[in-house]
Write a structure and sequence with these properties.
- The complex is a heterodimer.
- Chain A has seven helices and ten strands.
- Chain A is α/β, with parallel strands linked by helices.
- Chain A has a single domain, classed as 3-Layer(aba) Sandwich (Rossmann fold).
- In chain A, the strands form two sheets. In chain A, strands 6-7-8-3-9-10 form a six-stranded mixed beta sheet, with helices on both faces. Chain A has a four-stranded antiparallel beta sheet with strand order 2-1-4-5, with helices on one face.
- In chain B, helix 7 packs antiparallel against helix 9.
- Chain B contains eleven helices and no strands.
- Chain B is mainly α.
- Chain B is flat.
- The chains are: A alpha/beta, B mainly alpha.
- At the A-B interface, strand 6 of A face helix 8 and helix 9 of B.
């Protein structure tokens, strides 16, 4: 079975103080090869937890997750991750950051460097190879982080609200570029977001999740032409956003009520 | 990096700034001079700055000063470096291994606040009076701030940073030395900055208690011979070493943490 298969997944979040919280319950999901999936839901619905479980950063305790038939047992370069707050190594330059993963792969040093520079160019950071993260803007930091992850050529790209910390203009620009990159180097993408428009714009399928405990409420086939430059202004886009928003709204209200308790 | 820089202040302005910054230290010396001139104290109780500086010059020309300074610096630095290597390694391993942390935590909790100098008589019994004993005493005292700073630093490293490294193929050993060590280095360096003056203090105190060559030993000997100039000369000399230590450590910090935004 190729792709990612999640079956009967259940996850308990155990805070250091207080009683355990059921973060995910009975999650079942099949993601095909090179598919672009958005995990959408209110904060606290367990969408990031699901992503971390797929990445192997958290242990699967109940249920199973397989990637190409093999159960996930830990982090691996086949599933690259991009975090909201970039997680660049601040003591390394952009080039050194991108090289970090490549240095663990069997190839000649010259090839590594060539590859790193190619990916830095691809995300539009040429000329900033020797800058430190503290010298970059938020958008540039995220470009560097994306280059670092893409350079190790993962089969699956896990993105945890990657544009959540960016300003609106930069975010839109990055969304467009992510789609362009995805078209050029097709990968399975799992994209966590709480932004309905972002999910509709990027994903082929949107997995709408319910508030605590996190379950899959509905899976929406987006079916829009992503290559259309006028897409975000189209009627179909507005209708789809409306439909997805109506699904999320109830959950967001429930999540709010939960916080209020 | 080239950029817009403030205009260079004139020589007079810089000299004025320097004088203001050091005014308290200068005032202290002026007060000292005045107290001796007015004969408020006898020259035995408080020798004049001039007689003390003459004494320092004499010690310097005889070579004693440099032998004593070199020995004290050697003992302080050797102890400090051993404490740094042990403290950082132990701190890194302890935070990554819950079992080790569980095992060592009581020793640290009891050992950190305890005055380590109380072990000096025991160290003398076990290791004698020479360098091994003095350096061991320095290690024993300097290791705690380094160890606790390393543990605090490593524990505050964001999990995303560790996850990123693991995701990019780093193994547990790589994570420790390539990620945790540099990521925790601001706090570790703070621990080292605390430990270095402690190393100097303990080296001097150990020398005072155990005798022999070294700044502490020389001061105790001067005191026993009622040589008050010698004692005051020692105070000045040790302060200068301490000042150089602190400055050198701050420069090392700035050099190592060029990537870290600090104000």
């Amino acid at each position: 079975m190729s792709g990612i298969v999640v079956e009967g997944l259940r996850h308990l979040y155990r805070p250091k103080r207080g009683s355990p919280v059921l973060a995910l319950e009975d999650v079942n999901l099949r993601v095909g090869d090179q598919e672009f999936i958005a995990l959408l839901g209110p904060s606290g619905c367990g969408k990031s937890t699901l992503l971390y479980l797929m990445g192997g950063f958290l242990p699967v305790e109940s249920g199973r997750i397989t990637v190409d038939g093999a159960p996930v047992s830990g982090p691996g370069p086949d599933r690259g991750i991009v975090f909201q707050h970039f997680a660049l190594f601040p003591w390394k330059t952009v080039l050194q950051n991108v090289l970090y993963g490549l240095e663990r792969q069997p190839m000649a040093q010259a090839e590594r460097e060539e590859r790193a520079r190619a990916f830095i160019k691809m995300v539009g950071l040429s000329g900033f190879e020797n800058n430190y993260p503290s010298q970059l803007s938020g958008g540039m930091k995220q470009r560097a982080a994306i280059a670092r992850t893409l350079a190790i050529d993962p089969k699956v790209l896990l993105m945890d609200e990657p544009f959540g910390a960016l300003d609106a203009q930069t975010r839109h620009l990055m969304q467009t570029e992510l789609l362009a990159i995805w078209r050029r180097t097709p990968k399975t993408v799992i994209f966590v977001t709480h932004d309905v428009q972002e999910a509709v714009y990027l994903a082929q399928r949107i997995v709408v999740m319910s508030a605590r405990p996190g379950r899959i409420k509905e899976i929406v086939e987006v079916g829009l032409d992503k290559a259309d430059p006028e897409l975000t202004r189209s009627r179909a886009f507005a209708d789809m956003s409306d439909h997805v928003w109506s699904l999320v709204r109830d959950e967001a209200i429930k999540a709010q009520a939960g916080v209020g308790l | 990096m080239a950029g817009i820089s403030a205009p260079t202040p004139s020589f007079a302005a810089r000299a004025g700034q320097f004088a203001l910054r050091w005014s308290l230290v200068i005032a202290l010396f002026v007060a000292w001079e005045l107290l001796t001139r007015t004969r408020t104290f006898t020259p035995f109780m408080l020798p004049s700055p001039q007689s003390v500086s003459e004494r320092i010059m004499r010690d310097a020309s005889s070579g004693d000063l440099f032998i004593n300074m070199a020995l004290t610096i050697y003992r302080a630095l050797a102890g400090f470096i051993i404490a740094a290597m042990l403290g950082i390694s132990l701190g890194l391993v302890m935070t990554r291994n819950a079992g080790l942390r569980w095992f060592f935590d009581p020793v640290i909790s009891v050992g950190f606040p305890m005055p380590k100098i109380t072990f000096l008589p025991v160290i003398v019994l076990w290791l004698g009076f020479y360098d091994t004993a003095k350096i061991s005493m320095v290690v024993f005292d300097a290791i705690f701030p380094i160890l606790t700073a390393t543990i605090a630093g490593v524990r505050s490293v964001e999990k995303e940073l560790i996850w990123s490294a693991r995701n990019l193929g780093a193994r547990e050993r790589d994570v420790m030395w390539q990620i945790l060590l540099p990521a925790a280095s601001p706090q570790i360096l703070t621990g080292l900055q605390v430990a270095l003056p402690i190393a100097l203090i303990v080296a001097v105190v150990a020398e005072m208690m155990m005798g022999g060559y070294g700044m502490g030993g020389a001061m105790i000997e001067a005191s026993r011979k009622a040589d008050s100039r010698g004692v005051f000369a020692g105070i000045i000399e040790i302060s200068i070493i301490g000042w150089i230590f602190v400055k050198a450590m701050a420069m090392t910090r700035a050099r190592l943490l060029f990537w870290h935004a600090e104000r």
